[in-house]
Amino acid sequence: MERSTFVYDGDCAFCTRCAEFIERRIPTDVRVLPWQFADLAALGLTVAECEEAVQWVGADGGRAAGPDAIARLLGASTVGWRAAGAVLRLPPVRLAAWPVYRWVARNRHRLPGGTAACSLPQEVRERLYGPTGGPPTTA
User: Fold this and answer.
1) Roughly what angle, to the nearest 10 degrees, separates helices 91-107 and 66-75?
2) Is residue 108 very low, low, confident or very high in pLDDT (cuts 50, 70, 90)?
3) Which end of the chain is more exposed for a tag (fewer CB within 10 A), N or C?
4) Percent of the residues in the chain that have a pLDDT greater than 90, as a whole number
5) Does residue 139 belong to any structural domain of this protein?
6) Cα separation, 9 vs 119, whole angstroms
7) Any bridge partners for residue 5, and if so which?
8) Are 84 and 22 in contact (CB under 8 A)?
9) Closest of 85, 44, 82, 86 to residue 61, by C-alpha
10) Does 135 map to a domain?
11) pLDDT in tens, 117-133
């Protein structure tokens, strides 16, 4: 792989807003893309992993999820953001970050920019909205 990849849930408005913030404010050469448009097999990821948490796949093949993935993303940026990533990797901070991350993931449909679709598993979203998040197709 030529460069690292940060994968998020593109069907979730809250997650998409966060990804847009990353692209606007965090200078990095990391690819930031929704898992729905990623080649998950090439990245070594599954739909279940991507539904559970954001994912990091490093150019070196290293992988991380949730706040660990966010820490890696920050670590691939400029000095200030790298410092934030280093703090996120500190054992006591990392220990606290996972429960906070899980709470945010479970409640993302209630957060600013979130929608009801954010709370649905991919299987249900596909039934309701079709495989790409658009209207369902009829045969």
Assistant:
1) 120
2) confident
3) C
4) 68
5) no
6) 11
7) 31, 57
8) no
9) 44
10) no
11) 555 565 665 565 555 44
- The two tokens of residue 82 are 């790298």
Q: How far apart (Å, rounded) are the C-alpha atoms in residues 44 and 7?
A: 12
> Which residue, 92, 102, 20, 1, is CA-closest to 54?
102
3-class DSSP string for the chain = CCCCEEEECCCCHHHHHHHHHHHHHCCCCCEEEEHHHCCHHHHCCCHHHHHHCCEEECCCCCEEEHHHHHHHHHHCCCHHHHHHHHHHHCHHHHHHHHHHHHHHHHHHHHCCCCCHHHHCCHHHHHHHHCCCCCCCCCC
6: β partners: 32, 56
Helix axes 79-89, 91-107, angle to 10 degrees: 90
**Phi, psi (5° rounding) for residue 8?**
-130, 175
- How many domains is the chain partitioned into structurally? 1
Q: Is 138 inside a domain boundary? A: no
Range of the domain at 63: 5-129
